[in-house]
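Example 416, ligand LLP.
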Amino acid sequence: MHDFKYKKNKLYCENIKVEDLAKKFSTPLYVYSYHTLIDHYLKLESAFSEINPLICYSVKANSNLSILKALIAQGAGLDIVSGGELFRAQKAACPAQRIVYASVGKTDQEISAAIGRGILFFNVESLAELKNINRIAQGLNKITRVAIRINPDVEAKTHKYISTGKITNKFGIDLDGAYKILLLRAKFKNLNICGLHIHIGSQITRSAPFVQAIKKVSNFIQRLKSQGIALEYLNIGGGLGIIYDQEAPQTAQIYANEIIPLLKKTGLKIIMEPGRFIMGNAGILVVKVLYIKHTPKKKFIIVDGGMNDLIRPALYGAYHQILPVRYPLNAKRYMQKADIVGPICESGDFLAKERLMAKVKEGDYLAVMGAGAYGFSMSSNYNSRLRAAEVMVVKDKAVVIRKRETCEDLIRNEII
Ligand code: LLP
């Protein structure tokens, strides 16, 4: 469910016409629906209410402070992966005991800062990292909590760039490796190894891979228990897929029904790290048609937002629905096939290829749907383009939650 809907032939975000937002705030523009993102959070919370997990929103999906604050206010924690995200978590006033920290490459500075903040735990991805966190904690005279990220070697059935649970991926530690570490846990005097973590990938639309991975770790937890190795937490990661096109992903409730029995058996406190499920369909990217170009072989709709604003089509060949914000009447009679492309000097700069869509003209606005997660957060200044503004809509109010960048922002840190 999301709050981007046509009324008559105009696209609305909650109670506001998207076209009005585009005119007022200019384009390219990210528009988020507050109601949608909260609704998605609450859907997960209620599906899992029986086991009351800590839902740590994955900051990388969309790290805007207003979004973090809105979710924290609902009781969410945060899943972070860098010192920058730790800083954001702090600025959004996230209680430190609701922060978990993953990443295969945490630096000494990042580790010290997170220990200093007193986060709930690190998700540790290698033996080398474990030793390093122990060493840093010792220097700080602290005992730090860590969970071992297990690589369960399962096929997530998603795009290979966002599949993370195969043994050939860089993430996590294999079960045997984790077992050896746990046997030696007394050697790590400044660590409390209190849990396990898995995250097998993103945009996963079937529960089967999650179930497979959870079964593997749950058997492992039983094996550890039988040897007197007790843990406190199981972090099951994120990865829930959403609808971009024709997908029919598991709902939060189906996902919960499938895995709650397995999770209960572990007896551990559950953490989850959803990103896309909460934000993906809570945001759109609004762009303006600059030119319509006909070549001997193709038709191009050239818009003012490109791969620097939304890299998913270029990077993963990802599909995003593209809708006119004012639907032409009798649209079906005026369909066209075109490539929707940005202004950037690369042939990979497209939002859609050979897309059948309603005819549009220069000056029209288009909404790139499902752009709330991994949209703005992966945007860049490539081609010295200014990053877009972000607007949050709450019923009939729209507030800017990030100003459009200026040329001064572009060169702020440069020295001649
Ligand atoms: N936890 C960990 C450790 C992760 O690495 C990720 C995402 C998540 C949680 C959240 O996953 P989600 O619930 O959003 O699927 N840029 C790609 C997605 C990369 C996901 C990276 N890790 C995209 O645009 O499709």
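Summary: The radius of gyration is 23 Å.
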